[in-house]
């Protein structure tokens, strides 16, 4: 246990008494699909497909539509908690042959 003593050495303070509050999905850092693809060793196309139908917390989509003479596309940004959730689903034992 991490106990610290103050200047007069009579009072002990416990640094682990209060747990840190959990981060909300909007507070987390979000990363592009290419970041997760490089971390996991898959292509960006495969990881993008994994997140295509994922609409839970921690997945941000920025559609780029209405661009003249160019195709529409969507930028997907993913937080660590959402990435962990999808990775766990995709690497579940029953999916592995």
SSE arrangement:
Blueprint: E1 3-5, E2 12-14, E3 30-32, H1 33-40, H2 44-52, E4 59-64, E5 73-79, H3 80-90
Antiparallel strand pairs: 1-2, 3-5, 4-5
Describe what this molecule looks like in 3D:
Helix content is 29%, strand content 23%. It is an alpha+beta fold and 97 residues long. The protein has a domain at 31-91. The strands form 2 sheets. It has a 3-stranded antiparallel sheet. Strand 4 (59-64) and strand 5 (73-79) form a beta hairpin.
Low-confidence stretches: none
Order of helices and strands: EEEHHEEH
**Structural class, from helix and strand content?**
alpha+beta
Number of strands: 5
Please report which band the strand proportion falls in: under 5%, 5-15%, 15-25%, 25-35%, 35-45% or over 45%. Answer: 15-25%
Helix content: 25-40%
Q: Reading side by side through the largest sheet, how are the strands ordered?
A: 3-5-4
Radius of gyration: 21 Å
Average pLDDT for all residues: 79
* Secondary structure tally, helices: 3
Q: Which shape, going by the Cα principal axes?
A: globular
Measured between the Cα atoms of the first and last residue, the distance is 44 Å
Which characteristics define this entry?
97 residues, alpha+beta, 3-stranded antiparallel β-sheet, two-stranded antiparallel sheet
Structure described in brief:
The protein is α+β, with helices and mostly antiparallel strands and about 100 residues long. Helix content is about 30%, strand content about 25%.
């Amino acid at each position: 246990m991490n106990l610290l003593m103050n200047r007069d050495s009579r009072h002990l303070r416990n640094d682990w008494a209060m747990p840190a509050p959990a981060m909300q999905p909007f507070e987390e850092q979000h990363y592009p699909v290419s970041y997760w693809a490089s971390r996991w060793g898959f292509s960006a196309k495969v990881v993008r497909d994994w997140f295509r139908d994922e609409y839970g917390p921690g997945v941000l989509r920025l559609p780029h539509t209405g661009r003249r003479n160019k195709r529409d596309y969507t930028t997907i940004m993913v937080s660590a908690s959402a990435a962990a959730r999808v990775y766990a689903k995709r690497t579940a034992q029953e999916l592995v042959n």
